[in-house]
Design a protein that fits this description.
4-stranded antiparallel beta sheet, 2 helices, 28% strand, 19% helix, alpha+beta, 134 residues, Aldehyde Oxidoreductase, domain 3
């Protein structure tokens, strides 16, 4: 599972995702990519599930670049716990994704294979995405 080796703070504020992405909005590495169309927090498990679906469809040919990383700790209180007594313990790691952000990049395969593989990867993500090519 993706998570940082260390972080400056153990817990983080929830925050809001405003505006569209200026960083990571164009293809840098591969010929094809998957672009986010909605703002959302994507957790490490979802990123890993999408990556596995992507590489399995490509039969481990070509190359895949992951352009997002879960670096925000999301805390959660246990079930059936009364209000108060502070913030819960960190439960999982997430990444704030703005619209326009490239999530995956793919190269070394045909366009049909890349399109189908990125479609399968997008099914594992909680946001609407778009296939793009250079």
């Amino acid at each position: 599972m993706l998570q940082p080796t260390r972080s400056k703070y153990r817990k983080a504020f929830k925050g809001r995702i405003h505006g569209s992405s200026t960083r990571g909005a164009i293809l840098n590495y591969g010929q094809y990519g998957l672009k986010a169309l909605q703002p959302e927090r994507i957790i490490g498990k979802q990123i890993e599930a999408a990556r596995v679906a992507l590489t399995r469809h490509m039969k481990r040919t070509g190359k895949v670049w992951l352009r997002i990383f879960p670096n925000i700790p999301v805390s959660k209180k246990p079930t059936e716990v009364r209000m108060g007594k502070g913030k819960g313990a960190p439960e999982y790691w997430a990444c704030r994704v703005k619209p326009g952000r490239i999530i995956f990049e793919v190269d070394g395969v045909t366009e049909e294979v890349a399109r189908e593989a990125l479609y399968k990867a997008s099914a594992k993500l909680p946001i609407k995405t778009k296939f793009i090519k250079r």
